[in-house]
Amino acid sequence: MIALARWAEGDFEKLPALADELIRRRVNVIAAIGGDIVVRAVMKATSALPIVFMVGQDAIRSGLVASLNRPGANVPRESSPPRR
After folding, report:
1. Mean pLDDT in runs of 10 for the chain (84 residues)?
2. DSSP labels for the chain?
3. What was the pLDDT predicted at 75?
4. How far is CA 80 from the centre of its chain?
């Protein structure tokens, strides 16, 4: 496995170009970390690659996924840490 990392360094206008670069590099999956703005930029850039993400808010209410069991699109099933 080779991991490629890209950071927008707080400049969210860079997100589409960073996502496009990863797609051009023919990665197998994209881990979108940094909140829903990052996830939305990656979702807009590709509907073919799996996108794995973790966000601090409710992914359904924010419109990132349709449901937790069947998130839809190119987002694999959501996995949350166990509740205490």
Report:
1. 88 95 94 90 92 85 83 65 49
2. --------TT-GGGHHHHHHHHHHTT-S-EEEESSHHHHHHHHHH-SSS-EEEE-SS-TTTTTS-S-SS---TT-PPP--PPP-
3. 75
4. 15
The token pair at 8 is: 């927008």
Spacing of C-alpha 48 from chain mean position:
12
Token pair in block for residue 14: 């860079």
CA distance 31 to 54: 9
Beta-bridge partner residues of 33: 54
Q: Which two tokens stand for residue 67?
A: 């449901």
